[in-house]
Structures are given as structure tokens and as C-alpha cells.
Amino acid sequence: METTYVTKAKIKPIIINSVLLISVLFVLSNKAYAQNNDSVTIASLESQIRIRAAEIEKKMIGWREDIHQHPELGDAEMRTSKIVADQLNHLGMEVTTGVARTGVIGILKGGKPGATIALRADMDALPVKEPEGLSFASKAMGTMRGQQVNVMHACGHDTHTAMLMAAAEVLSGMKQDIPGTIMFIFQPAEEGSSIVDPTTGDIWGAQLILKEGWFKKVKPEAVFALHVMVGPSGAIFFKSGATTAGSENFTLKVSGRGGHGGMPWSTIDPVPTAALIVSGLQTTVSRKADLTKSPAVVTVATLQAGSNPNVIPDSVFMSGTIRSYDKDFQNKLDSDVTLTAEKIAESQGGIAKITITPNYPATINDSKLADQMSPVLKRVSNNVSESPLQGASEDFSFYAKEIPGLFIFLGITPKDQDPATAAPNHNPHFFVDETALITGIRAMASMTINYLVSAANTKKNK
Ligand SMILES: [Zn+2]
Ligand SMILES: [Zn+2]
């Protein structure tokens, strides 16, 4: 009895264990099969992207040079958006123009059901005068809030537009194989609007697209964008988490009481008060900010006082920017800047009035998306590295606050130049090596395909 009992007790776990082992093996082999199947699909789709991107490269460079030669300021991208809309219509997409004033949105439906993702390119240029040299250099003029200005694509948004137009054609050509929907956002006014006065609280660009409800309508579950940047040609760099700075602008008026330059004791001179404030503001970052939380910058960029050597003015005006990578940190910085300015003015018998206007929040890249796309981008470029924090800001940050976003950089410095000394974005000598741009088409298309295929497979395996 005892023996029988012992045997039975031993057999039972063996049977259970075997069943468990077989089930586990079955699930594992099924998963391996599915993964194998994914990688076969993805490898063949990526090789299609490689071929199609090479085929369209020349046409894309033509678009880029044409857009470069005819740059338009934020919210005035009439010609550019017409070129984009014509291309998206030609590809048979569902196209809406006049998005956020001058933007274009195209919807590409894949041949199979699946998730929706968004790809964004910005189209606007800057009030910068382009030097002569390039055969397609800009001679364009534009109107910046009533003022005539020279216009140049000094931030490379011409390349973003051309690369995304090309990626749209690449992906359209493969749409039967695409599980899901792709939303192409050709956004106006990333650098700011040429018609809206920012102090009125009116909005533009990414913020306006979101306010118009485009994410609610189309429901993308992730968003990607790419920015050209000084760096080895064809290199891709990006980072998880905080990427571009959150920025705010401030204006500051120091009021005193004007009078004769020879009798300052009978005045409240706002000029030395303003000088003390400029110095005092330097201590907000260097002495008060916890740099383990976020790097930060407080810059006074303009200073206007008086008009005559023997007249002490009533007031002094200054303006500048406050930047960091963390919202709470930025709030603390704002109150330190305000307190410093107000108390210094008070100590001198004057009054400081500061107005801080939020510009763009910090761009926070989704860590899961960054991890997921890292091997994808390594198949696109053989030079992929972690990006340092960028001091510039980007209105892509608004999209990335709504849904997981990934903002990557593409190096465009020609091989015979040192990226460390090459003219940066916004400089009139900013130069793009066009051979890098094919990498941008492939990066955008490959991230899209990988995201959608893996989302479809995850759903299937559930
Ligand atoms: Zn820019
Ligand atoms: Zn830019």
C-alpha cells in the first residue's frame, strides 16, 4: 500500500511536470515561430524600403532644392503646402489642407488592419538672409508681423519636408503590406508664427494642430519626427527622456524716475538697477538651481535704456529666455528670477515688472519607443549614438505630451568638415550634405513599418 501510494504520488508530479514542460515548449516554439516570421516580414519590408528610397533620392533632392530656394515663414507656407498637398493627392491619400492655417495632413490606409501612427515634418523657414553661393540659394523676402525680412531655410525644415514627402511615396508603394494607418503631418510655424503676436496668447504650429483635434480624430498611438543637425553626415543620434529644452521668454521693465544726468541724487536711476538685475539673474542658475535635477539657462538678450548722454531715463527694458528640461524645476527657476529682479529693483527704490511667457515645453522621448527603435535605426545607419541634451526647443514636445513620441537627429555635416566648427542651425551658413538625406527617408519609413508590424503581431499573439 505504502509502495503503491508512494509510486502514485511520484507519478502524478511527473505527469503534471511533463504536461507543463510540453505546454511551455509549445508556447515557446510558437513564439519563436512568430518572432521568426516577424523578422522575415520586417527584413523583406526593410529591403523594399532601401530599394524604394534609393529610387526616389534624386526626386527628393529636387524637392528640397526647390523648397530651399522658395522659403516661407511660419503660417505663410502657401507655396510649400501646395507642393506637399499635390504630392499626397498624387499618392491617393486622404488629404486636408489649411490645417492650423497652412499645414497639410495626409492619411495613408494600409492594406491590413492595425494601429495608427503619426509622422511629422515642419515646413517653415526663418527670418535670416542667406549668403550667395548655392545655385538654389534663397533670395526670398517675407513679412514678419508687418516687417519685411529676408527668409532662409536655416534650420533645415526644407529637408524635413522633402524627406517626409519621399517617405510618403515609399510607404504608399508598399501599402498593401502595411498593417495599419499612417498620418503624415506637414506642420506650419514650428519656429513661431509670422502673423500671430505671441503676447496675445494666440497659438500656432503643433499646439494649434492639437487644438483643432487632429489627434482625437485620427487617434495615432505614437509619433515620430526627425531633425537635421550638425553631426557626421548620415549619423543618427537620439536619446531616451528629455531631449530638447523647455523654453520661456521674459520681458522685464525696470521703472525709476528720470532726471538730469548731472544730478542723479534727485532721480531713481533705473540704469544701474537694470545692471544689478542682469548680474543678479546670473546667480539664479549658478547658486540656486539644483543641477542634479536639470541643466538650465537664464539669458538676458536685449537691453534698452535712454537716448541722450545727459538724461537719466524713466525706465529700462530687457528681454531674455529661461530654459531647462524639467517642468517643476522650470517653475522654481521662474519664481527665483522674478524674486531676484523685484527685490533688487526694490532695494534701489525702483520697481521691476517681469512677464514670463511659456514658449515650448521640453521634448521628452518615450523610453519604450526609444528602446524599440534603437535596433531599427542601427539597421538604417552604421553610425548611431546617444544624443547629448539639446539647448534648442521644439514644438514636437506638444505631440509627445499627448502620446508616446520619438524625436531623432540626422547628422548633415559634409565629410570634409568638422561638426565641432560647422555652422549650426539658424546660422546663415548652415549647410546640409544632401547625401545624408536618404538615411532620413529610410529612418522614418523603417520606424513606421517596425512599429506597425510589431503592434499587429503583439495583437495577434494575445
Ligand atoms: Zn530652428
Ligand atoms: Zn528646426
UniProtKB/TrEMBL annotation:
<dbReference type="InterPro" id="IPR017439">
    <property type="entry name" value="Amidohydrolase"/>
</dbReference>
<dbReference type="Pfam" id="PF07687">
    <property type="entry name" value="M20_dimer"/>
</dbReference>
<dbReference type="Pfam" id="PF01546">
    <property type="entry name" value="Peptidase_M20"/>
</dbReference>
<protein>
    <submittedName>
        <fullName>Amidohydrolase</fullName>
    </submittedName>
</protein>
<dbReference type="InterPro" id="IPR011650">
    <property type="entry name" value="Peptidase_M20_dimer"/>
</dbReference>
<feature type="domain" description="Peptidase M20 dimerisation">
    <location>
        <begin position="246"/>
        <end position="334"/>
    </location>
</feature>
<keyword id="KW-0378">Hydrolase</keyword>
<dbReference type="InterPro" id="IPR036264">
    <property type="entry name" value="Bact_exopeptidase_dim_dom"/>
</dbReference>
<dbReference type="InterPro" id="IPR002933">
    <property type="entry name" value="Peptidase_M20"/>
</dbReference>
